[in-house]
Amino acid sequence: MKSKGKSSRSLSGRKRTNKSYSSKRTGHVSRNRTSYRNRTGYRRNSGYRKRSGRRYPWFRYLILLGIVVICVIGISNCAGKRRAAAIQQQGEDNRPAMDVELLTVNSYSRPGIELKKVNGIVVHYTANPGSTARQNRDYFEGLKDTHTTKASAHFVIGLDGEIVQCIPTSEMAYASNNRNSDTIAIECCHPDADGKFTQETYDSLVELTAWLCQKFGLDADDVIRHYDVTGKLCPLYFVDHEDAWKQFKKDVDAAIQAL
Question: Which of 11, 32, 110, 182 is 20 to 30 A removed from 221 (C-alpha atoms)?
């Protein structure tokens, strides 16, 4: 009986010991798992922070790059505007003497349509021997009432070399057919049916054409005849005498260089 009691106590003690060991072991395992999770979570969080840290500087660089680009564009635009203003002022200083007698805005001779860009100068003749610059200007003005046709020019040069401006160079004229939208038109008076200009008309034509070329950044190669646009015999003398036309362009080129 005593031995059984001892065995019983001994067994009971072992159970308690096992239970205690089991609880310690369980606690040990729990602490290890918690520690592992903490370590794992720390590593994950550290990795996330590192990745976030890598992305953030690139974002700052992009912002700085955008600011630099905006500054460069702004500086370039300001410089371009200053250069354009300087060229325009230089052009105004070299402007030939002229009477500015602008037409009334109307659908038949001054449509008021903006010229977005000037790519050329077109030379015409009036085909009305002996008429004056004023008479041709008044004819264009009268079209708003007569409605007989659509016609005009930016400038008319008279027999004595006088220049009359009818339309601003920033607007379109009805003169050069499909080139109305990107050219400046000059009408020239002439005394006879052959269309040859007087020396005064010729000299003013060279001066005016050279000034317009400077104003719009063109050269003598950008100066054409109405004939070159549509095949119409205009200006007649320069169509019939190709050598005279080539000499005119040389004179324009020399006048541009002299400005």
Answer: 110
The confidence score (pLDDT) of residue 74 equals 75
pLDDT at 91: 57
Burial of 49 (0-12, 13-18, 19+ CB in 10 A): exposed
The domain locations on the chain are 99-258
* CA–CA distance, 66 with 78 (Å, rounded to integer): 18
pLDDT at residue number 132: 98
Residue 105 CB coordination number (10 Å) = 13
For 166, list phi and psi in degrees, rounded to 5: -105, -30
Q: pLDDT band at residue 42, thresholds of 50, 70 and 90?
A: very low
Pairing of strands 99-100, 183-188: unpaired
**What is the pLDDT at residue 79?**
65
- Two tokens at 69? 């680009």
Specify the fold of 99-258: Lysozyme-like (3.40.80)
Under the banding of pLDDT at 50, 70 and 90, the label for residue 48 is very low
Q: What share of the chain is helix, strand, coil (3-state, %, to 5)?
A: 60, 10, 30
Residue whose entry in the numeric block shows the structure tokens 């950008």:
222
Q: How far apart are CA 242 and CA 230, in angstroms?
A: 17
How far apart CA 239 and CA 153 sit, in angstroms, is: 19
Please state the pTM of the whole predicted model. Answer: 0.68
Q: How far apart are the first and last CA of the chain?
A: 138
Residue 67 dihedral angles phi and psi, to the nearest 5°: -65, -40
Strand 155-157's sheet: what is its strand order?
99-100, 163-165, 155-157, 183-188, 120-125, 223-225
H or E element that contains 183: strand 183-188
